[in-house]
Amino acid sequence: MIRIIMDVEKYIKDSYNEVIRRNPQELCFHQAVREVLESLESVLKEKPEYIEANILARILEPERMIMFRVPWQDDTGAIQVNRGFRVQYNSALGPFKGGLRFHPSVDLGIIKFLGFEQIFKNALTTLPLGGGKGGSDFDPKGKSDYEIMRFCQAFMSELQRHIGADLDVPAGDIGVGAREIGYLFGQYKKLRNEFTGVITGKRVHWGGSNFRPEATGYGSVYFAQEMLKSRDDTLYGKICVVSGSGNVAQYTTENLIDHGAKVTTLSDSGGTIHDPEGLDEEKLKFVMELKNNQYGRISEYAEEYPGVTYHPGKKPWVFPCDCAFPSATQNELTLEDAKELFGNGCHLISEGANMPTEPEAVQLALSSGVLFGPGKAANAGGVAVSGLEMSQNSMRLNWKREEVDSKLQQIMQDIHQQCLYAAKKYGVKDNLVAGANIAGFIKVADAMIDQGLV
């Protein structure tokens, strides 16, 4: 027994060291891998067949990594060149599934971290989806619609070789909304001469799913509600801070309002607005118009409504609250932020973004008894409804909004239960971070063993 325990510890350590050796500069990828591996010791002790099959080495290495140049012409006639990526990480449970991110920060390490997270997130949805991710270092900000169209067409001209409805189904992410999805799909359809469910996040009137835009934000709120239920509590009357002001933040805010909570903050890369009275439906419509159609800055909200203050360079975590919903980007909530947040009364975090909380802040939350919903569980609503969109496309159906919302609520409840069960079974009761990692890992690892050495 001692030999097995020592072998497990060494196996995990050696696996992580090999990731660092092979990917020396990819810090976000290292962080995502470390968080999962730290949860698996008890699983590997119980299931030595995973070690015998060397599952860690196989699951840590993507099945396929694709990089390509994207040449396009801007409105002045100048030729620009960006870099495109698609990491097809693991297909043990189904076709690769994961979004496309257009942002200057995108590099191979970012895409690998997102794709690795996506494996376990997709496994938790209970839908037959593998994990993948893609994107480009292209920056949509300040670009005209025609420039964005030309870039999307150039990007898809290469990507179309590597995707398909039963192979790899991309979706949107940061910088890729309904406009970009439309341009990408249109180019795919032209080049391949087929209309299939090859990309999700489409507008409803031409193949998209009702409730897809809302899904990630609504899902993070439904997950928060499930966490509070475990303590005989609800979101009603809670003061909530939300970061970001894009799709996830907008619909997180909308669902929190529907649950009777008060949302007092939104943010963007420039700073944070604080509205002590809380957002309502009218104010949220202003934000949606500002961000989705005018592509403006959140500071304009403070200019529109009296009593609202704008704080340049500040994040929402400095304001008192009961619950926090990080909904912008990775590592936006640091250890120092967490200390201030918990000191101001916060007792719940539900991650709407991918890995938005630094590891030290996560550990502080868990050790302080704060309810913590990790992104691979709490923000799985988006990919869950993308999976439902794939089903509707295959059947040539379109479900009503209420039907999709009902399915989403059930999926988020199931995810919460999976996390709780796995955490309890493997000795880390109420630790939903470990529970999510364990539940997702076991499902994928078992499928990989069933399918042989491929």
Number of helices: 18
- For the biggest β-sheet, the strand order reads 9-8-7-6-10-11-12
Q: Count of DSSP E strands?
A: 12
Model regions low in confidence, pLDDT < 50 over at least 5 residues:
none
Strand content: 5-15%
Q: What is the C-level CATH assignment of the largest domain?
A: Alpha Beta
What does this structure look like?
The protein is α/β, with parallel strands linked by helices and 454 residues long. The protein folds into three domains: 2-60; 64-198, Leucine Dehydrogenase, chain A, domain 1 (Rossmann fold, 3-Layer(aba) Sandwich); 214-367, 3-Layer(aba) Sandwich (Rossmann fold). Helix content is 50%, strand content 15%. The protein has helices at residues 2-22, 27-37, 41-46, 49-52, 55-60, 108-124, 145-159, 178-192, 212-229, 247-258, 281-293, 299-304, 335-343, 359-367, 375-378, 381-395, 401-425, 432-450, and strands at 64-73, 79-90, 96-102, 131-136, 168-171, 239-242, 262-268, 271-274, 309-312, 323-325, 348-350, 371-373. Helix 13 (335-343) runs parallel beside helix 14.
Quick synopsis:
The chain is an alpha/beta fold.
List the helices and strands and how they pair.
Elements (H helix, E strand, L loop, with lengths): L1 H21 L4 H11 L3 H6 L2 H4 L2 H6 L3 E10 L5 E12 L5 E7 L5 H17 L6 E6 L8 H15 L8 E4 L6 H15 L19 H18 L9 E4 L4 H12 L3 E7 L2 E4 L6 H13 L5 H6 L4 E4 L10 E3 L9 H9 L4 E3 L8 H9 L3 E3 L1 H4 L2 H15 L5 H25 L6 H19 L4
Helix pairs in contact: 1-2, 2-6, 6-18, 7-8, 9-10, 9-16, 9-17, 10-11, 13-14, 16-17, 17-18
